[in-house]
Amino acid sequence: MTGFSRRQFTAMLALGATLPLIAGPARAADHSVSIKSMKFSPAELTIAVGDTVTFTNEDGAPHTASANDGSFETGRLSEGASASVTFAGAGTFDYFCKVHKSMKAVIIAA
Ligand SMILES: [Cu+2]
User: Fold this and answer.
1) CA distance 84 to 109
2) How close is the Cα of 76 to the center of ligand 1, in Å?
3) CA of 101 to the centre of ligand 1 (A)
4) Structural domain that includes position 42
5) Dist. CA 54 → ligand 1 center (Å)
């Protein structure tokens, strides 16, 4: 412990532990969409810009979560697989499953 007194060192540890808690007023949140029984759930999800959504396939059949406008694409998810998408911009993002095109849902990033 050369250079720093024990007290200084303790203060630095406390600062390091505290900073992440006070940094940034609005922290990005994580949301989940499950794909089950051939449906996205929830079918409509409102999030904040910067948030992340994790899509998890709970069906035996493969699914994708594919934005109509191509802005995101999970690729084909097999049973139990998941993929995360971070929404960096505001918008209404309709999406569907490329394997089952009648499966549709929407994410609203505001
Ligand atoms: Cu599907």
Assistant:
1) 15
2) 9
3) 7
4) 27-109
5) 16
Strands (E) in 16-109, as ranges, are: 30-36, 39-41, 44-47, 52-57, 66-67, 82-86, 91-96, 104-109
Q: Structure tokens of 5?
A: 């007194």
Give me the number of domains the chain comprises.
1
Q: What share of the chain is helix, strand, coil (3-state, %, to 5)?
A: 15, 40, 45
* CA 106 – ligand 1 centroid, Å: 15
Residue 10 forms part of a structural domain: no
* Residue 89 included in any domain: yes
CATH number for the domain that contains residue 97? 2.60.40.420
pTM above 0.85, yes or no: no
Q: Is residue 22 part of a domain?
A: no
13 occurs within a structural domain: no
Q: Report how far ligand 1's centroid is from the alpha carbon of 24 (Å).
A: 37
pLDDT digits (tens, 9 = 90+) for 43-92: 999 999 999 999 999 999 999 999 999 999 999 999 999 999 999 999 99
